[in-house]
Amino acid sequence: MNNPASSTQDELVINHLYLVKFVVNRLTMSLPPGVTYDDLHAIGSLGLIDAAKKFDDSKGVLFKTYSVPRIRGAILDELRRHTLGGQTLCRKARQIEQATRAIELRKKNGAASEEELAAELGITKIKLQRMIADVSRSFLVSLDESVYADNASASLGDMIEDKKRLTPESQLELKERKAFLKVAIGQLPDQEKRVLVLYYFEELTLKEIGGLLQVSESRVSQIHTKAIVRLRARLNQLNYS
Fold first, then answer.
1. Do residue 113 and residue 180 come from a single domain?
2. Spatial separation of the C-alpha atoms in residues 201 and 92, rounded to whole Å
3. Last residue of some domain: 68, 84, 100?
4. pLDDT confidence of 163, banded at 50, 70, 90?
5. pTM of the full structure
6. What pLDDT is stored for residue 146 in this prediction?
7. Do 71 and 190 reside in the same domain of the chain?
8. Are 117 and 211 spatial neighbours (Cβ–Cβ below 8 Å)?
9. What's residue 109's pLDDT?
């Protein structure tokens, strides 16, 4: 006799396998040595299976909303495992984020320029650009990475997902954070704002965005990284205020 729960899980996996391809296609940066896109599809599929096992439809969240971060998380974990200097890259990302937060606090949320960031870090602008390029190739900065130090499950992505049947307290908190995020995105430099809209809302790849903006794919990746670091800095500011 078939287990109804198992059958439901199998159906979820089969009906949402396209999400694995979707996530892998969005990860367009350089792969570490020894890792292929077939490997990413396999790891992403395992993440999808795990999501199907843990999914609880009584929470009022769509399976697509629930599973995509977990597919991406499984892939990112595998990539980090194969990436040399992962801790160093994390440290670089945090340094840029902290410097961004310090500058923008002083400027009352005015955007920190590359010149100001370089001065804050005590490095040259060229070295700063190399740091940003390193981080942008590392898969370490995305909307799915945890933002709040006191809540490992909270991410930027959580705040733009359509979550249903939340508690009144959660609804109020989510509404406040969404409002803050909307303001923070509105304060980004125009190019960074446009990249975020095209990538997360129009769902274009970095290569497609590069074609629209007439810049290289690696440059789009760097712009994306700077935008996410800036948003993380501002949201952490909200968390500590």
1. yes
2. 27
3. 84
4. very low
5. 0.57
6. 46
7. no
8. no
9. 67
The tokens of 103 are what? 């500058």
- CA 163 to mean position of chain CA atoms: 18
Three-state secondary structure along the chain?
CCCHHHHHHHHHHHHCHHHHHHHHHHCCCCCCCCCCHHHHHHHHHHHHHHHHHHCCHHHCCCHHHHHHHHHHHHHHHHHHHHCCCHHHHHHHHHHHHHHHHHHHHHCCCCCCCHHHHHHHHCCCHHHHHHHHHHHHCCCCCCCCCEEECCEEEEEHHHHHCCCCCCCHHHHHHHHHHHHHHHHHHHCCCHHHHHHHHHHHHCCCCHHHHHHHHCCCHHHHHHHHHHHHHHHHHHHHHHHHC
User: What's the whole-number mean pLDDT along residues 200-221?
Assistant: 85
| Arithmetic mean of pLDDT over the chain | 76
Report the CATH number that the domain containing residue 183 is assigned in CATH: 1.20.140
The residue type found at 93 is A
Q: Same domain for 68 and 96?
A: no
**Segment 180-210, tens digit of pLDDT:** 777 778 888 899 999 888 887 777 878 888 9
Q: Say whether both 226 and 208 belong to one domain.
A: yes
pLDDT digits (tens, 9 = 90+) for 114-148: 999 999 999 999 999 888 887 776 654 555 454 43
Number of domains in the chain: 2
* Per-residue CA distances from 47 to 68, 70, 156, 186, 187 (Å): 9, 6, 20, 33, 35
Average pLDDT, stretch 17-24?
87
